[in-house]
Design brief:
Blueprint: H1 2-6, H2 9-20, H3 30-38, H4 55-65, H5 74-95, E1 99-100, E2 103-104, H6 106-110, H7 112-131, H8 140-167, H9 175-200, H10 205-232, H11 235-238, H12 244-247, H13 253-261, H14 263-268, H15 279-288, H16 291-313, H17 317-330
Helix pairs in contact: 2-5, 4-5, 4-9, 4-17, 5-7, 5-8, 5-9, 8-9, 9-10, 10-16, 13-16
Length: 335
């Protein structure tokens, strides 16, 4: 059901993105090449381009399709995807990440100053994408609401990123602070993706709010699950080494819970080169203090709230079933 119904979305999203960026081959200049490269349209001598999963715009279109014509939501779906990619380009610079989707990052190929410029361009194109909604017959009031949703979300994204970077040098970060951070950095855009679909479909404010809460809780559950998999995940499924987050000494939700419960774990969590404990010992300590159970409990709570909010929105037909299936898939409750 999910694959059959959403198969039509990927080419439509890509076409809308290309129309927004006025896609032309060959790229007219280096400026365009940076954007095309990051979006997976050209390779620049790197491994074959791999487009992102387009999860957020797919949610937008499904939430629209559940009560209206999903094609009307294409400009909003493109805007959500472009904001997501703007944040990725800037995150890669701030984190000095050299790879994304198996290829060199934009800053690694063109340098940090030009990569900042590329991220700014994607941010601006997201706003141009929303303006295209008028071509699909959406009235000015809806377009203005979409602008407000998008811009408020961008503030939440940047606030979340600010806290994420600040946490790297703080030794007193709490689990509650971490949850607030991921609500801004991860959940806010997923919430807006869902609400924008309902907005395009003409749903009333109370239904839009159900979709927003669905997206917010889905984003929180998804990030917490990723935190758990980063410590206890099956490498054959996740595609990365088990306990990779421990090796990097990341301050994820289970770790912060453990650090707050076990003073000895604070010393153990220093890098091994500075006298910290081995990965296996840290994982055992996290298990012993209940960090895994705590994380799984938080994940279940937000997953249940996401499903309850989705049920309250009452999405109809094939789109409603596909939306439910995608939610279960993202929550790891269905293959």
């Amino acid at each position: 059901m999910l694959t059959d119904f959403t198969a039509q979305f990927a080419p439509a999203i890509d076409a809308e993105l290309r129309a927004t960026l006025d896609f032309r081959l060959p790229p007219p200049d280096d400026y365009a090449r940076m954007l095309y490269y990051h979006l997976g349209w050209i390779d620049e001598g790197q491994p074959s381009p791999v487009a992102g999963k387009r999860t957020r715009p797919t949610l937008t279109l499904l939430c629209a399709a559940a009560s209206g014509d999903w094609t009307h939501a294409l400009p909003f779906a493109a805007a959500v995807e472009l904001i997501h990619n703007f944040s990725l380009v800037h995150d890669d610079i701030q984190d000095e990440s050299q790879l994304r989707r198996g290829r060199a990052t934009v800053w690694k190929l063109w340098g940090k100053p030009q990569a900042i410029n590329a991220g700014d361009a994607l941010f601006t194109y997201a706003h141009l994408a929303i303006q295209r909604a008028r071509l699909y017959g959406l009235d000015t009031a809806i377009v203005l609401e979409a602008f407000q949703l998008l811009d408020t979300t961008c503030l939440h994204l940047t606030q979340g990123q600010h806290h994420d970077m600040a946490f790297e040098t703080r030794g007193d970060v709490t689990a509650d602070e971490y949850l607030q951070m991921i609500e801004g950095k991860t959940a806010s855009l997923i919430a807006t993706a869902a609400e924008c679909g309902a907005l395009a479909a003409g749903e009333p404010p109370e239904v839009r709010q159900h979709y927003r809460e669905f997206g917010r809780h889905l984003g929180l559950a998804f990030q917490i699950r990723d935190d758990i998999l980063g410590i206890w995940g099956d490498s054959s499924i996740t595609g990365k080494s088990a306990a990779t987050d421990i090796l990097a000494r990341k301050k994820t939700l289970p770790v912060l819970y453990g650090l707050g419960r076990d003073p000895a774990l604070r010393a153990a969590y220093r890098p091994e080169s500075e006298g910290g404990a081995a990965v296996a010992d840290i994982v055992a300590a996290l298990e012993a203090c209940g960090a895994r159970a705590f994380g799984e409990g938080k994940e279940k709570r937000h997953a249940d709230l996401a499903l309850a909010s989705l049920a309250a929105a009452n999405p109809a037909g094939q789109a409603g079933q596909a939306l439910h299936d995608l939610t279960l898939q993202l929550l790891g409750r269905k293959n």
